[in-house]
Fold each of these.
Amino acid sequence: MAKITEIFFDCDNTLVLSEELAFEACADMANEILEEYNIPDRYTGDMLIKDFVGQNFRGMMGSLQTKYGFQIEPTELERYVKKEEDMVIAKLEAKAKPCIGATEELEKLFASKKYGFAVVSSSALRRVRASLKKVNQDKFFDHDKVFSAASSLEKPTSKPDPAIYLHALEKVGKKAAETVAIEDSKSGALSAIRANIPVIAYVGSYNGEEIQKEMAERLTALGAKAVMYHWSEFEDRLKEVETGSVEVHSTL
């Protein structure tokens, strides 16, 4: 395959430990909506993570509407999206921390000058930038190379839709085979794979060896080319991707 010259980083729970904080705020917002529509079920952050990890709030609301058979008017949905975004950003600015070893690996890769960097996320652009700034990782990414499925596209979407990765490829001027994506979730991995981008699955942010092993197996089954348990393994996993044969799972 072609030599990799561009690295696409997911943000949430790949670079920044943000998912738990974000889903706390998201659960509050989701429960408010369910109450307004007279739906008795309620969610905790952990329940939302289990059902919707890797999706943005807009994607989750689509899934909830399908599950419970109700419909939110577009203008009302935009109000909810903005309110949830503000709630999440407040939590991130107060408490977000980097994934273990992520900043150190970014420092090494950045100093090597071998690769271009971009962030490719489902989350809103304001949220992604707030996360990166809080953990002092924003210095590694050019302002115009942070991409959001919720904010950067003409029509907002969410992973596993490949649109945001296709958009990122176009903007950085790379072919899929020249890039690699680091993803921690099923929806994120599928998004990159559907754009023909090889994926390194990062499972280090999951709590406990058992769930890490389970996620490694799931993401490998989807088509991830390598699995990384700690950021210190990145260069070895990248070599595996560069020297291996990449097969596109077109049936996904």
Amino acid sequence: MQIETLFDPATSTLTYIVFDPKSRDAVVIDPVLDYDPLASSTSTRSLETLEALLRKHDLRVHYILETHAHADHISGSQYLKKRFGAKVGIGARIRDVQKLFRDVFDLPAAFAIDGSQFDRLFDDGEKIVAGTLELEVMATPGHTPACVTYKIEDAIFAGDAIFIEDSGTGRCDFPAGSAEDLYTSIHERLYELPDATRVFVGHDYQPDGRPLRSETTIGAEKEKNIQLRASTTREEFVKMRTARDATLAAPRLLYPSVQVNVDAGLLPRPHANGRRYLSVPLNLKQITDNDGTPA
């Protein structure tokens, strides 16, 4: 197994190409469609770089795997699906996330909340065959209900569940997020894997300006993770995570990202004028009058 890593500095997102160099069978994990929120415009610059790597290695892409419905970048899955004929897969609990956000964005009744926009919905423990690659799905909810980790040989791709040990874990304050669930996912599932298991994270925020890192190990996480070590109790973690999340601002691309990503990376359907529009809820946590005062 060989792994190519791409980094998007605008969103601190790590994308992975995992492939068998002999058979050229491959999967792509968490690709990024560039989005400029000021101009409200998309760009395929990052995806073109990714595509060039796939073609350089002459890879046969079987799946585009999403670890969850991202709140910090728009998925580039549809670009790759169109060009490589790959299937888009995500955890089966995406249905729960779709139900939540259909109301938040006032999506039309025709918006499917059964996950049918995706080609595959993965259950916990499910095995995926991608040519000569074999993957196992591990449900790791907490950051969102639908988060999954993909295990391939001696490596896991954990999305936003856990980061490099000096960055801690994913936040749990999104709708239906749960610090209790995240503790279980990490401490009672991921930390049960062998210490030598390689951990590939979904983001690296490079604290204190340190060089980019995408990889650590279960052993290092258990010993050094600043928020959740093997010795950390459930009560300690839930208290810390809840207090910290209360201080965090919403992700910069929260609303554009989620409404696209719950729809399998499909951009909003064009209006009658041919243009596509994103929906941004105003004062989501406080209903207001038309002059901005609380209703």
